[in-house]
Write a structure and sequence with these properties.
- The structure is a single chain.
- By secondary structure, the protein is α/β, with parallel strands linked by helices.
- It has 17 helices and 6 strands.
- A 6-stranded parallel β-sheet has the order 3-2-1-4-5-6, sandwiched between helices.
- The radius of gyration is 32 Å and the shape is elongated.
- The N and C termini lie far apart (69 Å).
Amino acid sequence: LLACFIVQLFFVVTAYLVSHYRSHRLGIEQVHLPPFKSPAFIFSKSFEVWVNLLDILLSLAVIVVYITTTYALRVSIPILSVNLVACGFFTFEYISGLIRGNCSSSFLWSYASIVNVVSTVPLLMQWGFPTVLTLVFIRVQRLYRAVHDMVESKVLDVFLSPLSQAVLDVFVKTLALVFTFAGCIFTLESLGDISKFEDTPFDLSDAYPVEPRQWSFYTAVYFTIVTIATVGYGDLAPVTVLGRFATIISIVVGVAFFSIEVSAIVTVAQEEAAGKGRLRPRAGFKHVILSVSDVEGSQTSIRDFLREFFHPDHGMPMTRVVILATELMPDYIKKLLNRGSLAGLVSYLQGSTMSVKDLQRARALDADMVFFLANTNDPDADSEDNSNILRAIGVRQYCNQVSLRLQLLNSDNKQQAISVGIPSDCITCIQEVKYSLLAQNARLPGFSTLVTNLITSSNDEVHSND
């Protein structure tokens, strides 16, 4: 602990001196710049992902080695070699994080930074002080942080659903909690009571002889799980003052932890079922977004769109449709999502294209196209068109490079859409199409029926069980 404190103090003083020098010699306007020229890859997202992956692997290796040494009761050369490699990488990770954090005090005193120091310094000290009782077990907290960062950065979206990621996050957090308290109790019980700090008010050893207990890391994990789960078999109990204090803390933290995390998993499951999750990308699949203002009033339009979009003649088997609407998922959409022909190809998200957060959930930047479907049953055509135009503006402002198709009811509103930057060839006006077909049908009777049949595909599978 003293060595960890000295190392942490060294970094804090160094960062303060660097900041002081830059503010007085370079000028206050350049304080936000890096302290020296750093490689650009350190600030990239891919670098952070690879660092987290290597951190997870080496943290697992260090924890396994630590548990092994608690049984072997000695530190061999291979173990020292593994610890040295891990120590080198953890030091590189700490320094790169310090550079990315611009040598700020917020990074130095962050939880992840302190865990890095406390779990890395003992690895290096084992070359001079080969002992099995170290604070290396705290590294499991950094392992959890690496997994949590990968979940938060959406890197795992390709492999896991939001619910699966939430379960993974809670699972790793639970392991980190158990291993941390188990390591604390094992270390404290192995060291014994501090001199003149024993909890022995009466000497009853003659009447009630105390049976010596052998603590191992496995028994410490077993005891921690039984204690946190409030089972309490009573077959094992700490005898030192600090060990009992750590047990009290573990009970309080464990009960609160499980209550909060179970509630979080239930919330994620409910949100995903209600359409409040986010789109999970699938390898080899593209997707388009279908934005509607009124899901209930647009049942026929949505069914017709899906029937045409997924018709075998159009060749769209590897493209998914994401329905984005402000309402909760209606029952008929749930039936469509569970239908054999559309299962896995249609998703529903509750949200609006005027919200950046909702567009990120729908992965609008990666979409091939965004369709804005008008509600043909709305008695107020102008209001419906204005709503569609506003939603189209939201997409254009967020991702201008994504193609869109805007459907309007009233032809008088087409010019309004063009004036806000929507290309005319991306706008389809239902009234305009109807009047054009009527005019051509007057010149050539049956023309409208011919065109309607040509542009409409038959697919009874989508309409089955309606």
